[in-house]
Amino acid sequence: METLNGLKRTHYCGNVGIEDIGKEVVLMGWVQKSRNLGGLVFTDLRDIEGICQIVFDKDISKEAFEKAEKLGSEYVIAVKGIVHERQSKNPNMKTGDIEVFASELRILNKSETPPIYIKDDDDVSENLRLKYRYLDLRKPSMQKNLILRHKVANIVRNYLSENRFLEIETPFLTKPTPEGARDYLVPSRVNPGKFYALPQSPQIFKQLFMVSGFDRYFQIVKCFRDEDLRADRQPEFTQIDCEMSFVDMEDVISIMEKMMQRIFKEAINVDINLPIPRISYKEAMEKYGSDKPDLRFGFELINVSDIVKGCGFKVFSDATSNGKSVRCINVKGYEKEFTRKNISSLEEFVKTYGAKGLAWIKINQEGVVSPIAKFLDEDTLKQILDRVDGKEGDLILFVADKDEIVFDSLGHLRVEVAKRLNLLKKDEYKLVWVVDFPLFEYDEEEKRYVAKHHPFTSPKDEDLEKLETNPQDVRAKAYDLVLNGFELGGGSIRIYNSDVQMRMFKALGFNEEQINEKFGFLIEAFKYGTPPHGGIAFGFDRIVMLLAGEENIRQVIAFPKTQNASCPMTNAPSDADEKQLQELNIKTL
Amino acid sequence: METLNGLKRTHYCGNVGIEDIGKEVVLMGWVQKSRNLGGLVFTDLRDIEGICQIVFDKDISKEAFEKAEKLGSEYVIAVKGIVHERQSKNPNMKTGDIEVFASELRILNKSETPPIYIKDDDDVSENLRLKYRYLDLRKPSMQKNLILRHKVANIVRNYLSENRFLEIETPFLTKPTPEGARDYLVPSRVNPGKFYALPQSPQIFKQLFMVSGFDRYFQIVKCFRDEDLRADRQPEFTQIDCEMSFVDMEDVISIMEKMMQRIFKEAINVDINLPIPRISYKEAMEKYGSDKPDLRFGFELINVSDIVKGCGFKVFSDATSNGKSVRCINVKGYEKEFTRKNISSLEEFVKTYGAKGLAWIKINQEGVVSPIAKFLDEDTLKQILDRVDGKEGDLILFVADKDEIVFDSLGHLRVEVAKRLNLLKKDEYKLVWVVDFPLFEYDEEEKRYVAKHHPFTSPKDEDLEKLETNPQDVRAKAYDLVLNGFELGGGSIRIYNSDVQMRMFKALGFNEEQINEKFGFLIEAFKYGTPPHGGIAFGFDRIVMLLAGEENIRQVIAFPKTQNASCPMTNAPSDADEKQLQELNIKTL
């Protein structure tokens, strides 16, 4: 193996072009492939900018040619040579107009045969990809994703800095998050028996910055939740965390949607029109069955409870008499795409969300075709079709149940149907603010109200007096930004008055002692001049994932964890040293 | 309490100026002070930009005036009014040319009397300051420090991004750091009995990015070490972490010193001349007794062992015959500043570094004055004075001991003397690269060699063959950047050959099994085409501390920990829930 020994790279492989013809260049990178054709060795040399073709000709350098004959895949080499115009240009290659005739070759490192291919369509298991992540990250798509991630972080930091936001770091070794998800704990050696928690968000600290007068804060910061994982969740994730003083909801929304506009423009050259539309929580649930509505397509939910009340179809009439509801979606114009078998599989699909069945009506050339038609009198059927604008070619799908289940199952069903119809375009970006959230939701397990967002969210002024009497009716000064069915972020105007904050904690079922234990220093801080303030936090991984057109956040994270929160490359988590556990005053069970 | 109710701030308090005279402005902030003088209420209103004087006149608004009479310190208010030129201008105030006559006042929040004063010279204990950190952070000096911190981070990110470095995030929940300091551990719930470690640095990950072809990586990132704390150490600290491929030491030094130059220029308008001077580890030790030399003043160490060998002063002659050394510093020209009592206290000082005593020679009007002069013959004395350039007015201070102790005690002594003489100017910035470090140091406790930097540091090519035979003589391709006696950062060219890496691990005393257990995936990664690479990591907190002219990193961290790694504000670390410990499969002892 040879060394650089002072040799300097002059160009990136991917950047050598027609303007460099005649120049001597020094390139360094990895051998993508290399083959001897008619007495010349042709080597595709790869670096982060792309690939350049190198030609080794024994008439130029016998030594280089002989070394080149032995090159293997992923060898690391340095090449010196002259840029020539190619005889046969390759229009599919950024550097397809040129090739470099090498006068010198240094083999900087060899490579064994890699256990995974360095190409995007390698089709190996994700576990193997993660085990050899350092090779997986050589793939163009992964490099593109992480470059995009860097770019988006820069756009965000520039925008917020220009707008006077200060990035201030908050502690990682801190207190457990009350009313949050499950914390990761860190045993303290110096304080035996005590634990730090890793932050689920810098929520309390950023509010304290407002108390301190820091006015406009932000941070792109790692946060931690010890929850079971899904495709778009990781034990550690990155947030764009913001907070502002002396603002109301309009101020926060306005500055943040401008940031979003800039991200889309600068990162992927997509224009977002402002203002971003808004929808109330209630309307989102009624129309889309979800507070994260995907607005790229229709199939909105329609309530037919009033029509089917007392009708002949027992499932419908029973539901409406039990305070449940009957709602449907009209898969307009796609009747032909759904055979009975397809519809059965949709029924299986809604059952996973708790629905007991899926009633349906098709309208085709023969008229109404439906297993439930015979139970419905003509007038009821007509009223239904009128309401859903039922025309030839339509497929109407019904669920009857508690609102919660109807919303959940039809909400997912409309997305599933759109997916099957190929209506989910990756390059269509439908942003929407969801507003007017309820402040609380009832937790059946804990038998108490819990905060829908978090306990620092301000109630709407006009709902303040219902805090004790009708908590379920109190709306919050909260707002979520949703893109194509994904929540990009959420925020709120915060409570800044210690009395209201106490009332909020009490509404959550805490007594004075618990409040002091969990939130004492915050209540105390609020006594010394707290400005009105509010903010928002965005899921950075998720934003980058959507901008990259990926479906899994692991595709935009360099070293993610698997579903069981482990890393196949490092084997973390791993056994701990007995001695160290003793120092930490803990033992494993 | 009143609400904003749509009222918008038009200006920051500190930014209203002569150009705004006649305008109506809306300001929001905290009441610094407020007093009734001759029928007018004068209120100093403070926000992050500064202070503005508000005048409440009952002839303008009786309602505002009456509310203003009741304002207390740190009340949060909004004021609307017209900017007037002041009768008696205050040149000590940024906004001293103007005052705002208020037509409207809203009290947004009240404040109880704060437990600490909101001014820089409050003189309360640091513990109280940290307990009420949200108030402490209202002080102008703390706001200035955190604004500077934000600015420095932006300068670094801009510079590195312009130079094609990508910021890529590395995991926080990862593997223990072999050969590092003590790790913080995080028990895994999903993998019972297993632990993550918080990273001490992203060292291995950044090297894997180089294996992946990411060429130029950086990250401003939190790192963690569970060590006992000192003034400039915290359990969590922030690093500027960089790594580059296809480079040698000159490339890394060159790009990084340009970054440093830019930081000094843009953050505090100080010019740093490039190239930054270099000194070898050996010379730094010989001249300054330290590998973190403070070059703002002289008093360099001088070896007189050869002169005093066999002399009449037993302490000196014994030392030299036992392979120890006798060295001194000449406190040139400051003889008069040091009485015998002062010198005694210097002797006490060096004893804390293990020296047994401090011999001294003064040269004043009467000639040589010294308790040891009588033991030295004239020629020896003359030779000493010649070597140290001893002239009237000088004070020469000697330590005789093992090199290690002599360097440590005289190294600290020269700084202590300079401090007492007020020679440590905060606005003088002497940067120096320390190079040619030894690769290993011998660990007396573990009875083996350990890496002076870390086990991935490359030996110098010409010393490679001594790895097994003379480890103590192997020099490293390592470099530290030192400013005024503080290490700002350190880095190295890394080993990139798996065979050399194996030899290095073996030199550290590991057997194959241990190597595989601790570093297996790295050795494996190195087999698939690893480029030559190197990098550096800077202590971000420390850089900001020095730029801010502070002496304690807690002054540039929003929510630092105390010496016992706790937070007086949140009371972290705290007791954990029994139920959660069970879920984590651990118990406390």
UniProtKB/TrEMBL annotation, chains A, B:
Organism encoding this protein: Alkalithermobacter thermoalcaliphilus JW-YL-7 = DSM 7308
The keyword Ligase appears for this protein: yes
Region (Aspartate): 203-206
Catalytic activity: tRNA(Asp) + L-aspartate + ATP = L-aspartyl-tRNA(Asp) + AMP + diphosphate
The keyword Heme belongs to this UniProt entry's keyword annotation: no
PROSITE patterns, per database record: AA_TRNA_LIGASE_II
Subunit structure: Homodimer.
Superkingdom to which the source organism belongs: Bacteria
Subcellular location: Cytoplasm
Keywords: Aminoacyl-tRNA synthetase, ATP-binding, Cytoplasm, Ligase, Nucleotide-binding, Protein biosynthesis
GO molecular function: aspartate-tRNA ligase activity; ATP binding; catalytic activity, acting on a protein; nucleic acid binding; transferase activity
InterPro entries, sorted: Aa-tRNA-synt_II (IPR004364), aa-tRNA-synth_II (IPR006195), aa-tRNA-synth_II/BPL/LPL (IPR045864), Asp-tRNA-ligase_1 (IPR004524), Asp-tRNA-ligase_1_N (IPR047089), Asp/Asn-tRNA-synth_IIb (IPR002312), AspRS_core (IPR047090), GAD-like_sf (IPR004115)
Aminoacyl-transfer RNA synthetases class-II family profile domain residues: 148-560
GO cellular component entries: cytoplasm
GO BP annotation list: aspartyl-tRNA aminoacylation
Lineage: Bacteria, Bacillati, Bacillota, Clostridia, Peptostreptococcales
The protein's role, per its UniProt record: Catalyzes the attachment of L-aspartate to tRNA(Asp) in a two-step reaction: L-aspartate is first activated by ATP to form Asp-AMP and then transferred to the acceptor end of tRNA(Asp).
Annotated Gene3D superfamilies: Bira Bifunctional Protein, Domain 2, GAD-like domain, Nucleic acid-binding proteins
HAMAP family listed in its UniProt record: Asp_tRNA_synth_type1
Amino-acid positions noted as binding L-aspartate in the UniProt annotation, renumbered to this chain: 179, 225, 453, 494
Positions that bind ATP: 225-227, 234, 487, 539-542
Family named by the database record: Belongs to the class-II aminoacyl-tRNA synthetase family. Type 1 subfamily.
Entry protein name: Aspartate--tRNA ligase
EC number(s) reported in the record: 6.1.1.12
